[in-house]
Amino acid sequence: MAKGRVAILEDRCKSCGLCVAACPMKVLRISERINEKGYRPAEQYREGCVACKICALTCPDVAIEVFRMEEA
Prior knowledge:
InterPro entries: 4Fe4S_Fe-S-bd, 4Fe4S_Fe_S_CS. By secondary structure, this protein is of the alpha+beta class. Helix content is 14%, strand content 25%. The chain contains 2 helices and 4 strands, in the order βαββαβ.
């Protein structure tokens, strides 16, 4: 199975939490950091992403990129 990595474009994230709720692997959360617009962006806080891209498809602000890394 492929592993994934989620990259949040923090300047676009508005802390709506839709990606956190949608993630089947529960690897996302709302960060404690505050972005330049005053929101707490989402972040991947643990391993386990399977690169399903549900979080990216759910994001209304197009603030998520998902990268797939094949296991050797």
